[in-house]
Recover the amino acids of this structure.
């Protein structure tokens, strides 16, 4: 890759049982699209998700038990946060969890569990290597109709790369910020774990690279801005399995955004089929995940 020898890319994601099927869909998309070896670590925020991924027994899809890595500081923060807010609080720590497990890994890439590859993401890594920086972040790249920069932030916690040594200052700063405040509301220029990223290009100009290929990772907030075919990865924010239809599961999505018909046909419908397949796999084969085994 652009003269940089990488034997294997190391990814990390996190989820609980409600996003377990998203995590499997993400893994399957990596298998289908990458032309290089990889490992995907999953920080499993509850025991059912850890048990399920463990039982899959896949060499390149590796569960991490929250209980094994959770610190006293994290437990203290958890007491005052919702499940969603605590997952956001955990995100900055996932890199160090994996670095500790993978002593030879020079970098770790975080992926949101509701991200799905449609093509090889090599172009993102290639741009990062050419930058000679130590961290990579990506813009929301909003369509003007959905610009939420002021509240949700300019950058999106969806695809982040941190090198082991050069990004320590960023990781430690972000970890402390999220321990101090990480809530699902906009307050004093903060929002969850995400608005903190807005300051990185100025605070760490020699360390942080902002991905210039803005349409390489797309989501509903820019589906009207770029051709869907530009995206190598899609962020399916708001796409869920309807929990009230467990006997006849259906995929629903946040209707705040307008999705163009070609994008719906060629991106959302294939993902919905994949997500349902992953959901039904767990429901059929794992007792207590999504009801009884059929």
């Amino acid at each position: 890759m652009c003269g940089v020898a990488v034997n294997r890319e190391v990814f990390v994601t996190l989820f609980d049982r409600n996003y377990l099927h998203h995590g499997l869909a993400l893994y399957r998309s990596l298998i289908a699209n990458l032309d290089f070896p990889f490992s995907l670590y999953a920080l499993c925020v509850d025991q059912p998700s850890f048990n399920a991924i463990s039982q899959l027994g896949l060499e390149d899809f590796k569960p991490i038990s929250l209980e094994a890595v959770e610190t006293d500081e994290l437990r203290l923060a958890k007491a005052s946060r919702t499940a969603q807010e605590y997952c956001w609080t955990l995100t900055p720590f996932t890199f160090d969890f994996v670095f500790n497990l993978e002593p030879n890994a020079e970098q770790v890439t975080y992926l949101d569990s509701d991200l799905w590859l449609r093509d090889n993401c090599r172009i993102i890594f290639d741009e990062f290597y050419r930058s000679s920086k130590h961290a990579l972040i990506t813009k929301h790249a909003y369509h003007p109709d959905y610009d939420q920069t002021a509240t949700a932030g300019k950058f999106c916690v969806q695809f982040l790369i941190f090198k082991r040594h050069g990004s320590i200052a960023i990781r430690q700063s972000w970890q402390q910020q999220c321990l101090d405040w990480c809530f699902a509301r906009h307050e004093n220029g903060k929002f969850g774990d995400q608005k903190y990223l807005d300051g990185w290009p100025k605070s760490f100009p020699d360390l942080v690279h902002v991905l210039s290929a803005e349409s390489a990772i797309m989501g509903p907030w820019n589906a009207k801005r770029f051709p869907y075919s530009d995206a190598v990865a899609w962020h399916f924010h708001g796409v869920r399995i309807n929990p009230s239809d467990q006997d006849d599961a259906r995929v629903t999505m946040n209707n705040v955004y307008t999705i163009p018909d070609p994008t719906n046909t060629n991106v959302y419908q294939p993902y919905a089929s994949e997500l349902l397949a992953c959901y039904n796999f767990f429901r059929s084969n794992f007792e207590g995940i999504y009801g009884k085994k059929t």
